[in-house]
Design a protein that fits this description.
- This protein is mostly helical and 165 residues long.
- Helix content is 57%, strand content 2%.
- The protein has nine helices and two strands.
- It has helices at 2-22, 34-39, 56-71, 81-86, 88-91, 114-126, 132-138, 143-154, 156-164; strands spanning 98-99, 102-103.
- The protein has a two-stranded antiparallel sheet with strand order 1-2.
- A hairpin with a 2-residue loop joins strand 1 (98-99) and strand 2 (102-103).
């Protein structure tokens, strides 16, 4: 009984293979591949969409604008390279704690006084405040470095006001 079932299935499979061969073969990119090429020819002229070509200068300007938008308002006022390399990735280029309208990992530090910032930095360095990233960044710094960062961050509101004018 098993042999009969296997024989019938084998004949059925061979029959399907023959039918496929008579229909032009299986899709291997040959005749059936022309279907994709012909697809573009069958579209009516009313359904086509005109694509405006932009010159290289316009494309370059769009890319620059996208980069400026992505960078946020980093150019709003000048910050030191130390701040950019150590603080801006978490607190933002201007200390707002936001980038492209989304909150960043670090909190807003813009608007805090230099004394508040210095106190917080000392507490992070000593371990009284828990933050592994802050502690790792602050460990090799001296108290003078912490004071310099605090003074710079404390000046952010004044710098932003001066940049507006």
């Amino acid at each position: 009984m098993k042999n009969i079932i296997v024989g019938l299935l084998t004949l059925g499979i061979i029959g399907l293979m023959g039918l496929t061969f008579m229909g032009g073969g299986a899709f291997q990119g040959g005749e059936a591949g022309k279907v994709i090429e012909d697809f573009g020819d069958t579209m009516s002229a009313g359904n086509t969409v005109a694509i405006e070509e932009k010159d290289d200068r316009e494309k370059e300007d769009e890319k620059l604008k996208a980069l400026r938008d992505k960078a946020g308002n980093a150019g709003a006022f000048h910050v030191s390279n130390e701040y950019k390399s150590k603080c801006a990735s978490c607190h933002g280029a201007n200390g707002s704690g936001m980038q492209n309208g989304k909150p960043m990992m670090g909190p807003k530090i813009f608007g805090q006084s230099a004394e508040e910032i210095h106190t917080a930095l000392v507490e992070f360095k000593s371990g009284r405040r828990e933050n592994v990233v802050m502690k790792g960044l602050l460990m090799p710094m001296s108290d003078e470095d912490l004071k310099r960062f605090a003074d710079e961050i404390g000046e952010f509101p004044a710098r932003a006001e001066a940049a507006k004018k």
